[in-house]
Amino acid sequence: MPEYILEAENLEFSYMDGTTAIRNLSLKLEKGKKYAVVGNNGAGKSTLFLHFNGVHRPAKGNIKYKGEVVNYSHKRLKELRKNVGVVFQDPDNQLFSASVYQDISFGPVNLGWPEEKIRAKVEQALKRTGTWDFKDKPTHFLSHGQKKRVAIAGILAMEPEVIFLDEPTAGLDPFYCTEMMQLLDDFNQMGATLILSSHDLNEVYAWADYIFVMNSGEIIAEGLPEEIFRNAQVLKTANLGKPWVLEVFDELVKNKALKEQTSVPRKKDQLLDLFSQFQVI
């Protein structure tokens, strides 16, 4: 049976102004997988993420971590947030220390780790995220892309088992988008479970193992990327488009220029590899 590291059961949540953000939402996250949550603005993606590390507490329903219902005592929340990290869309909401090194060390210091362990984990996070060269730089002098990497390093230094990332490539140029997604792949290969939200559906389609679609605070569909993005009704309801790799592939198959494949291409290079099958007319 799959090992679920996080679960949401029948969540309900509304903000103080009465806005209902989450409606009877349930999902399960399997350990070690890469997930994406997609949907238009206001669908509830960010609100959902903040439930999984205890920032928001559901009005109804439960969050489970490793099969146990989350306890909202200070001690248990501290433990949960050590294991479940959230990287915000805007890194300025996450960075507040005078220097990069101080910001990344904040979490480990707050966990009460010995100084030697803190130094080792911070240096490791700096090197993994490519932020070592500006570790002593004030955070407010960093570029947007550098700030994104520092925010991730601050979470990584605490060695979480799960990382939620809200629009991790928003505002980045194509080069740094590629770098960021490779960095997330590296974390996953080291055993971390990753969940991201993104409006870049081409990126999501190429990267995720499994996708949840949100609309008006609900999960309206879930499945493999090629299943989700071939479901015209789901795409219409959630105001989503079809990733171009899948759109091109399906059109070529429809027009008999390519044969239907057992494995549907997810990335550009995979699609290009299939062009050798073109039928000459």
Automatic annotation (TrEMBL):
<dbReference type="GO" id="GO:0043190">
    <property type="term" value="C:ATP-binding cassette (ABC) transporter complex"/>
</dbReference>
<dbReference type="Pfam" id="PF00005">
    <property type="entry name" value="ABC_tran"/>
</dbReference>
<protein>
    <recommendedName>
        <fullName>ABC transporter ATP-binding protein</fullName>
    </recommendedName>
</protein>
<dbReference type="InterPro" id="IPR027417">
    <property type="entry name" value="P-loop_NTPase"/>
</dbReference>
<dbReference type="GO" id="GO:0005524">
    <property type="term" value="F:ATP binding"/>
</dbReference>
<keyword id="KW-0472">Membrane</keyword>
<dbReference type="InterPro" id="IPR005876">
    <property type="entry name" value="Co_trans_ATP-bd"/>
</dbReference>
<dbReference type="GO" id="GO:0016887">
    <property type="term" value="F:ATP hydrolysis activity"/>
</dbReference>
<comment type="function">
    <text>Probably part of an ABC transporter complex. Responsible for energy coupling to the transport system.</text>
</comment>
<dbReference type="GO" id="GO:0042626">
    <property type="term" value="F:ATPase-coupled transmembrane transporter activity"/>
</dbReference>
<dbReference type="InterPro" id="IPR050095">
    <property type="entry name" value="ECF_ABC_transporter_ATP-bd"/>
</dbReference>
<keyword id="KW-1003">Cell membrane</keyword>
<keyword id="KW-0547">Nucleotide-binding</keyword>
<dbReference type="InterPro" id="IPR003593">
    <property type="entry name" value="AAA+_ATPase"/>
</dbReference>
<feature type="domain" description="ABC transporter">
    <location>
        <begin position="6"/>
        <end position="241"/>
    </location>
</feature>
<keyword id="KW-0813">Transport</keyword>
<comment type="similarity">
    <text>Belongs to the ABC transporter superfamily.</text>
</comment>
<dbReference type="InterPro" id="IPR017871">
    <property type="entry name" value="ABC_transporter-like_CS"/>
</dbReference>
<dbReference type="GO" id="GO:0006824">
    <property type="term" value="P:cobalt ion transport"/>
</dbReference>
<comment type="function">
    <text>Part of an ABC transporter complex. Responsible for energy coupling to the transport system.</text>
</comment>
<dbReference type="InterPro" id="IPR015856">
    <property type="entry name" value="ABC_transpr_CbiO/EcfA_su"/>
</dbReference>
<keyword id="KW-1278">Translocase</keyword>
<dbReference type="InterPro" id="IPR003439">
    <property type="entry name" value="ABC_transporter-like_ATP-bd"/>
</dbReference>
<keyword id="KW-0067">ATP-binding</keyword>
